[in-house]
Design brief:
Shape: elongated
Protein name: Alpha-L-rhamnosidase
Number of helices: 22
Strand content: 25-35%
Structural class: alpha+beta
Organism: Cyclotella cryptica
Amino acid sequence: MTKVDNYHCRRSVPIYAIITNQSSGMSSTTSSVTWTRCDVPKAILPSDPTNTTPSSEVTSNTPPDTHYTIYGPGELETYHHAKLRRSVRDAKLKVFYPGRWRHPSPRAAFRVSLFSSNAFELRSEEGRTTCQWSFRSNARILSSHLEWDRRGDTDDTGNTYEKDFVGDMAQDVPRELSVQTIRNERCYDYTLFLPFTSSPINCRPRIIVELDTRPKDDSAPKPKDDQTVSTDNDENESRLYPPPCISLQFPNSLEESANQLQLESWEWRYVNDNHEKEEMESEWCTIYQCWTSDYPFEKGGCDGLSPSFCRSSQKETSSANTTISAYAETTESFWVFPHQMTLCHVESLQPQAEIPLPEPTETDASCMECLYDFGKELLGKVKVTVTTIHDLVPLKCGISSVKLRVGETVAEAMNDDEDHFEQSTELCCLHFDCSRSCTSDVDCIQEKSLVFISAHLLAFRYARIIIDGFDKRTHQLLVECHSQRPRVPPMEGMFYFNTEKSSVAKQNCSDENLSLDDKIGRCSAYTLQLCMHHNFIVDGIKRDRLPWAGDLAVSIMANCYSFSDSESIRFTLAVLGRCGNDAMPRDDGGRENIDDEPQIAFMRESHVNGIVDFSLWYVISHWLYQRYFGDVAFLKQEWTVVTKRLSCLIKYCTEAKTGRLITNDDDWLFIDWSDNVKKTAALQILWWWALECGSLLVDTLILFADNNTSESIDFKDFHGLIQDAKSRLESCFVQDDIQLSYSRHAHIFGVLSGLNLRLVDNASSKDWWNPNPSDDQWRSLVKIRKLDQQSLDALLGDKLEQVGTPFMKHLECLAISRLGERSSALSKIRNYWGGMLRTGATTFYEAYAEKEMPDDVANFYSRPFARSLCHAWGSGPCALLPEMLLGLRPLADGWKLFLVDPLDECPENISASVRTKHGIIKVHLDPTMLRIFTPYGTTMVLMERRYGPGSHSFPRAKLLSTQTIHQWSKKYRGWFHHPTHIIPNNPLILGTPGFENIKMTDVPTVYQIPGDKKYYMSFVGFDGSCYQSFVAESSDLLSWTDIRFAMGCGEEGIDEGGVVLGAYLYECYDIQAPRVLKRVNGRFYSLYGAYSKKGGYEIDPGHQGLATSGDGLFWVREKNESILSIFGPGTVGTWEKDSIYQPFLLEHDGTYYNFYNAKQMPQWVEQIGLATSKNLREWTRHKDNPILCVETLCDSARSGGFDTQFCSDAKVFFDNELNHWVMFYFGVGKGGAHIMIAFSKDLLHWIRDTEPLYCAGDNPSGLDKSYAHKISILHSNDTWYMFYCAVGDAGRGIGLLTTPSH
């Protein structure tokens, strides 16, 4: 007898059954059945007394019927999860899988409410029915009743029913229904007979059906009351029953009428055998989603049932309260429920190569060893076939034993020490046949063979076969892998690099990176594909082959860009959310007083995966799923699970005053596999992120809820609970003890969560403001305002402990990208994931340290082969590469609004596709054009412009990426402030009386006069009535003296309210050139802002005029009418209908450009427009005004940007060094007015840097704590000088900022 290593002999078993039973319990013949998730529909039941046609009958002209199968929320997912845990246990994987995992209930009740335009009551006459309900189930009916929901109805005394009234209208007890049962081989077919007639009663009938999937004689241990199981000691694992379900067949063409009933809303609860009824009533869960298929029922016919139901002709009749039973004859047709679906695709793969091994010694001559390399990581079963090639040599006389060893590395495959086995290599004997003689070698190979297959799924690349008694002269060996993959293939067009289309790219220096990026993208997608197992996203295929919340967060993003398989995410979220759910406190009160001590013990066993931070990742993953997939129906289905977890964390695990999340010493806090990581701040930021995600999820549900309903009110109440916890937590981040404990991980979370931005918002709000420079809080707030820069410095530096896993490396690269350094993030991706490729990786690892040697990659947990070399959280580049290179990412849930922002250094040919619920987004960038397809229902944002559905093309030469903008703006950052105003709010005006009452100074503009080395600054003074323009002079740009009058108020109706000089015509507009005035026909020219009325500050409507000067110091009006106003010339847009403000004059290629800001009321929004002229007198408005709008694409984590209300007062110059135009302007948004910057290649299309160059309040003296705006910039002596209007404690005056040239 042949010996098989650790084998259990299964003779003559078809191989497809062995392969597919592991995952689904069904043979491969079921693979054509496809069930997909959908919203629960409203079924229609006939209620005409004369109509005996069932609800599922349709005419031959109608489309195929649709079937819907309904389970309890999360029951199907927990059933498959229980099967997965069992398979992991059987495969002897070395798994530590903590957590209280939900077990599917074999016994459950469904409650369905009926609705019609007519009301219905019970009839007392037996034998008369007007409605029937047919359905299919996998379970026995234990009971079926009719009850009434009388909420809103009144009783005999006039009281209103506020709760459910359950019972017969006459007897106040539920009424049992007549049931007709047909038992098929694979299911039960039921018909319930419902006795209704019309009656004007204000209540709705409800049907309750209790089902059980266990056979009647089941003697297995009953499930625990909490219906949960542990992994290590599970009494229920040996008797795993599927959850009860109900399948309905709906005709697609049946029309509604007044005489029909609807199955309107569904509810479910699990039933324990000893459960009290009163307790069950409070556990009904609304069902929002089910499974749909158009696969046909069995063909056959019966009276009163669907013609597709098969039944025998014999049946029993009974009274209305007795079940009618019938049993079907065996047919060749079959029925497959969703829990019986085949969840994987199996394909046969051959080894890529055989690795030579040393020749056996003479003592081992009869033992043959072969080592095969399959070329890449696989998840599947190894099949070994040994055949004889000579008719005279019986196979059974030669082979004595067969052994299998596999490994992700050669060293693991060569290991024979069972203590170091990470998975079972048990073999099963499938086939042994040498019964008849053969006449050809081919026949011998087919008939005389031993076939072995691994009993369990294996994760491996290398397979070693050891056969005793194998003789190469008479025996032949065939090895193959039956590889399992998810049924969802990679999305067409998901791979980003079309290198074969770019001959230029192959010749340039970026070819190496292009090829590397392509390999990284494909390898990460393959990693995720292998980890999409059994309809879950599991962490690793060798260890642990089970879902974990940390892997899921990364996998959601990667999945979106590669497979777009939302079902695997839903399965995983549903199971994770129910982990430990029963261990949470059942009362809703929480601590009676916020000052009470946290009750952490209540939550100790409730954490997802048994890990504190994984409970937080679970909530964050729900938001990520909505952002990348936009599945509100699933969120609604799972919302009670999400709220329970968040509510209990808030009520039982937070510190009273600070809102911090408290943990015990016994709690497992993961954060990352990295030594010496400070986890305190990282945990609190992650906690804030979970709260923020919970708040955003509530906002999503509120959008889809009816206002003023109880559901909407519950959402708003929960939103208030979260906001209170967040506000308390935010205050603690001002404290130095948390800031000083920031690890690399804390910085990552701070950026990605939006906490950095939120704290900047808070630091810019009046509630937090404190201008006292000696105050500790002030110093903390100033530091907070620089958090993003601090985080960027920390993430790009080496001072902090490095991350330890691809999980955190993914988040680190994403954070660096969001901080504007996509090129740096790309470099990290290429070094890190490229480093794994250089070690020989075909999938990405669980953990990796850069420059790790190939021989070291398998060692982990102090075990030589414990590291998972195919891990879901290693698949991050699937999402990172399209976002880094093309800037492709969602800005709203489900990609309703999305961004495209290609890097200027992007490869010449690159493509990406994303499948959304609206359609497929397609982006292709070639050497000359960017082409984008935007599906209907989505909006694309490119260079701050929005584009609707359709195909769009853009010349590549005109594109500007935010990465480039970020780099260009660096040379204008790092400002040092002058401590006081250089021109105060009440300056002394020389030579001319009447200007003693000036209260404010504003709008500085520095210039020089040809042939004069002095610097001159014009500015305006306001005396409470009107504006006047003045000029001061300086020799060093620091001390300004000799202030004199330059231009004053003019005629009524034109510029009586004052003039604002400053839009001068310069000789050169290079950013580093001196600001020397240009003479035209012997005169200097300037545009100016004007107000037609006296008596106040900026009395509308403002307009613009033209002034000239002979000496550059004293100016007069050139034209006695406005050159630009709200009345013309040309068409005046809505955005500028209320006032025209300060101009800036620029000359380029014979054309004059007038950049001006204008106002729209009542919102008081100011934006920048453009007009052009050939002679300075006649102006034409640009057709695409405004050319720079207020920011509307603010991140969801921030209350607003820095220029959400104003984009004003443009100053435009040319950067010869980098060949682009620069616009300095001021924005008004959060925290006051700030100095901003934007860039352009053509003066027409502008893109801003969303982060200010200088923020109001950056001067600790309070000089500009309210506004920092209206700048004049020039370069001198290797220093940038920026003069600006500083408004703060010292009033409105002229301030100065300087920075060295970079």
